[in-house]
Amino acid sequence: MELATAKRPAPGEKVAPRSGPMALLGYSAETMEAAMRIGLDFVAVVPNGFESLLEKDGVPVVPWDFNRRNEESHLLYEELSRRGVRWSVPLYEETVEWAGAINSRLADSPQIFTHSLLFRDKAMMKRRAQMSGIRVGVFEEVDSRTQVHRFFRRVNDALVGVGPDRENGVSPVHLKPISAAGSVGHVLIRSDEDIAAIADDAFPCMVESHLDGQEFSCEAFIHDGKVRFLNINEYVHLGHCQLTPAGPGLQSIRSQIMQEVERLAKAFDVRHGLLHPEYFLDADGELNFGEVANRVPGGHIFDLIEMAHGFDPFAGLLLCSDPETREDELEKLFPAVGESPRGHAANLMVYPRKQRVRELCIPEEVREDPYFMKHDLVEPMISKVPSREGFGNHYGQIVFFGPDPLRMREILKKYEDLDYYV
Q1: Is residue 175 left, alpha or beta, with left meaning phi > 0 and alpha meaning psi from -120 to 50?
Q2: Strands (E), 238-327
């Protein structure tokens, strides 16, 4: 199936002159390539060990340990200031508060840093959303198994058997690390035995009630406080397969979702950049807020956006993150309001089902499916399969593209059950 070419600057077409370079925090080849395509000057701030290769390619680079915070942390700002950097962009979860700290000094606005901390602390994040009138579940910060047990009992006593898991009268609760990205460290608790099995080093953490319904994410490109483009990404099976843009059910309430995203951006005072919130649509048609990130989404969602909507989302991230971007530059990149997608893109993230594997084996029915586009699955380097952390460590993805989101959903569910490693 033919894919439309993504909307990218024509040869020689560059962004308007800027007053200085941007700092890109975290190693992302796609983001650096996008910056080069649009002619945006940048400095790459990357983990130690990545700098030598970039320097060979002529990329301005600053090596930095994002996991180390001490009395010398101010040196990063000073080095970037010396290089004339005017703004920084977080690309990964671990760089969000660093960008907040740098930008707060560049803009002489301490609030920018404090707002960035809301994206790194899940409990503070939910509390800020709740105080802004956004629907969230019940949650608590906990320091011990005793507190987890008390929360679990209180939630189930309050629901008196009418929670989501009506079959056995128990409503599960979720335990999450305060600052980990995505689903890392996420534990589903359904019993006292699950609480007893919680690792000692999990505390302090957060527990929250279960939110029932259709889970989905949004990718909102925001510039000057306005949502310039909104993608709705449907989780067909969270952490395993997804569809962009979402099917007709979620698209039918697009205006409602847009209002919630705009409310969220206002609540977190996001003026520039990308918001990646997750919501639950319940049986009553109400939207419940799950959590939100302020960096590039995982799960290869940007790849799906480019296939489906026909523009370069990495360029979109950079232009929206840049306060100096002009209106005409945004209009050239993003699809016009109301413009239909070029198709529906989806991926299946594959993880071996066995503890030991010999080789990659993609079933013929998958390769021959009209919606099959490509895959980047890798041959196993070792036979032993490492334990999975969150939804990470998958061995690659299988990508599909086609016009019918309902058929796409069916094939994702079907092909998810196949073995790709034997």
Answers
A1: beta
A2: 241-244, 273-281, 287-293
Give the separation between CA 168 and CA 185, rounded to whole angstroms.
Answer: 26
Number of neighbouring beta carbons within 10 Å of residue 415: 21
Q: What is the pLDDT of residues 13-36, one digit of tens each?
A: 689 999 999 999 999 999 999 999
CA neighbor of 273 nearest in space, from 11, 2, 24, 18 = 24
Domain assignments of the chain as residue spans, ordered by start:
22-120, 138-209, 214-416
Residue 159's pLDDT band, with cuts at 50, 70 and 90, is confident
| Collapsed DSSP state (helix, strand, coil) of residue 101 | helix
Confirm if 178 and 125 have CB atoms less than 8 A apart. Answer: no
Residue 208, beta-bridge partner list: 139, 174
Kindly report the number of other CB atoms within 10 A of residue 81's CB atom: 14
User: Structure pTM?
Assistant: 0.92
**Cα–Cα distance measured from residue 273 to residue 89, given in angstroms and rounded to the nearest whole number:** 8
Q: Right CATH number for 22-120 from 3.40.50.2000, 3.40.50.20, 3.30.450.70, 3.30.710.10?
A: 3.40.50.20
User: Angle CA(226)–CA(229)–CA(232) in degrees, nearest 5?
Assistant: 120
pLDDT digits (tens, 9 = 90+) for 115-148: 999 999 999 999 999 999 999 999 999 999 999 9
CA distance 397 to 175: 28
**What is the per-residue pLDDT for 353?**
83
pLDDT value of residue 2: 44
Q: What number does CATH give the domain 138-209?
A: 3.30.1490
- The CA distance from 359 to 403, in Å, is 33
The superfamily in CATH containing domain 214-416 is ATP-grasp fold, B domain (3.30.470.20)
